[in-house]
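Researcher: Structure prediction, please.
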Amino acid sequence: MKRAPVIAIASGKGGTGKTTFAVNMALAAGEPVNLLDCDAEEPNAHLFLSPEWEEEWEVRLKKPVFDAALCDGCGRCAEVCRFNAIALPGGKPMFFKELCHACGGCAIACPRGAITEEEAVVGRVRKGRIGEVRFADGRINVGEPQAPPVIEEVLAAGDPALPTIVDAPPGTSCPAVAALTGADYALLVTEPTPFGLHDLAEAVEMARMIGVPFSV
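Model: Predicted structure follows.
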């Protein structure tokens, strides 16, 4: 089945009217569409829509667990961690969960089997509808630093047979990149201020780096 077009509504900063634009675009479509709120740190499109919720589920990631009795302090886990989430002061592993990207590399690399993985709930996704609009949003748990896994679940929640409008997170960091990756087109919403122009330039650079065609 051929995937319908995906349009991402993005901005270099918050407060430009991006969510308002995305909501009105979905309501004005006049046909069934997906509206996916990917601002997992502060989703608010539902406040404009009051959808009828149909489904909700947890987003889980596998996080490493260290067995100090098996660890011999070889440091292989810290060597393979690209995100510096593991240190070995005094030969004992110290884990910084805020930096962990749940890639599983440390568990694979450990020669003594001292690292296992257990599932951790990092957020929630929910689906509903408002008339012909199929709506989904996600929210990361308080204290969780990594929004992209939740954003990816929101993107997967849409019906691929329907045109999709993605309300991307503000800014140009990893959450915004995750929301725009795979989009066919991006609309960048800005505001007539020096800050708006500065951050618009950042958003333009982001879209070009990802390879998503865009307009403002």
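Model: DSSP finds seven helices and ten strands in the chain.
Researcher: Thanks, that helps.
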